[in-house]
Amino acid sequence: MPNTQPQLNVAVGLIVRNGQVLIAWRDSSKHQGGRYEFSGGKVDAGESVPTALARELAEELAIQVQTCRFVRRLHYRYPEKTVCLHVYRVDQFSGEPHGAEGQPVKWVAPAELWQYQFPDANRPILRAAQLPDLYTISHDVSAFDSPEQWLDYHTQTVAPNAWLYVRVPTLAPDAQPALIQQLQQQRPDLKLVISAALYALNLPVAGCHLRHADLATYTAAYTELPRYDERQLWFASVHDAASIQAADELGVDAMLLGAVLPTASHPEQTGIGWAAFAQLASLADCPVYALGGQSAATLATAQQYAGYGVAGIRGMLG
Fold first, then answer.
1. For the purposes of burial, counting CB atoms within 10 Å of the CB of 243, is it exposed (0-12), middle (13-18) or buried (19 or more)?
2. 150 with 132: CB under 8 angstroms?
3. Is 206 left (phi over 0), alpha (psi -120 to 50) or beta?
4. SS3 of 269, please?
5. Domain annotation for the chain: domains and CATH numbers
C-alpha cells in the first residue's frame, strides 16, 4: 500500500566538540518527548536543510553554525505521521551551546550515548556518531610470508583507536577468526570490522562489511540487517547507483564508494573522479567514504565532494 501519511522534514544536528556529542532533553509535552534528542527542528517550505538547521540551532542552543556536513537521512513511520530526519554533523560553530529554551543539555562521549533514551527514530544516529573520518583497510595475508608477519605488521602499524576492516580474502575462512582474535588481544584499542561472511560467529567486533558482490544476496535474504548488538555497524562497498540503492534498502550505516583516484594496485585505472563521486554519494541515505587513492591528505577534498570520510589501505598503512 502506498504511504499516504503526511511527511515532516526535520533538520537534526549531530553537534561534536572535543570528541563529545551534545544532546538535549525533549519536553514530555512534545511528540516522543520525555527523553533525550539531538537538537534541530522542522524544515519550512522552500527552506534548505542547512538553513533550517542553522536557524533551529540558533533558537534552541544560541550557537551560529559555521559549517555542517551531511551524515544521513532517516525515514520513520509513526502511527500518525512519517518523519524524514536529515542529519548533519556540526563541529564548527560559534557561541557556547546552552538550552536557550530552558531545556537541559549535556555533552556525552559517543560510546556512552547508548545509556540514554532517545526517540525511536534516533537509533541509527547513535551509530553514526561513532563513525570515524578515516576507515582503514588491512593488507591481505598474501602480501606477507605468513599470518604471523601479517599480525606483527598490523599490530605495530595501525594508528591508535583506528577503525580497521580486517580484509584477508586469501586466508582460509576457518583460520580468520583466530587471527582476528589475536589482533583484538594485542590491540584492544582498535575498532575491528570483519567480513559479513563471519557474522554468524558473533565475534565481539565493532562492525561487519558487505562486499559489493554480497549486496544482492543480502537484499534477497533480509529486509533489515541483523545485529547481535544494536551498537554494531554495517558497512558496504558500492560502485554505482543500483548498489547504493540496495545498500540503503538494507539499512547499512556507511558505504565505501570508488575507486575515486588511481591506486598503486591498479595504476592504469583512472578512477571515477571527484565529480562522479559527489554525484553518486548524494544518492545515499547514509555516510559515504571515498575509496581509491585516499589518505588523510585527501580527507578535506572528499568532504568537499559530499564524502563523510576516506578509506584505504596503503594511504593509511603504507
1. buried
2. no
3. alpha
4. coil
5. 7-128 (3.90.79.10), 134-317 (3.20.20.70)
Look at phi and psi of residue 19 and say left if phi exceeds 0, alpha if psi is from -120 to 50, else beta: left
CA distance 230 to 251: 13
Torsion sign (Cα): 178, 175, 160, 162: negative
The DSSP annotation for 82-150 comes to: EEEEEEEEEEEEES----TTS--EEEE-GGGGGGS---GGGHHHHHHTT--SEEEEPPPGGGSSSHHHH
Nearest-10 crossing angle of helices 147-157, 176-186: 30
Mean predicted confidence (pLDDT) in 11-25: 96
CA angle 47, 51, 52 (to 5 degrees): 70
> Which pLDDT does position 128 carry in this prediction?
96
Between 11-15, 217-221, 243-247, the lowest mean confidence (pLDDT) is in 217-221
- Average pLDDT of the segment spanning 82-103: 94
Q: What are phi and psi of 281, to 5 degrees?
A: -60, -30
Contact 59, 101 (CB under 8 A): yes
Note the pLDDT of residue 120. Answer: 73
Q: Where does residue 4 rank: exposed (0-12), middle (13-18), buried (19+ CB within 10 A)?
A: exposed
pLDDT surpasses 90 at 243: yes
DSSP, collapsed to helix, strand or coil, labels residue 11 as strand
pLDDT of residue 266: 66
Q: What is the pLDDT of residues 100-112, one digit of tens each?
A: 999 999 999 999 9
**For residue 15, pLDDT beyond 90:** yes
Report the pLDDT value the prediction gives residue 80, as an integer from 0 to 100.
76
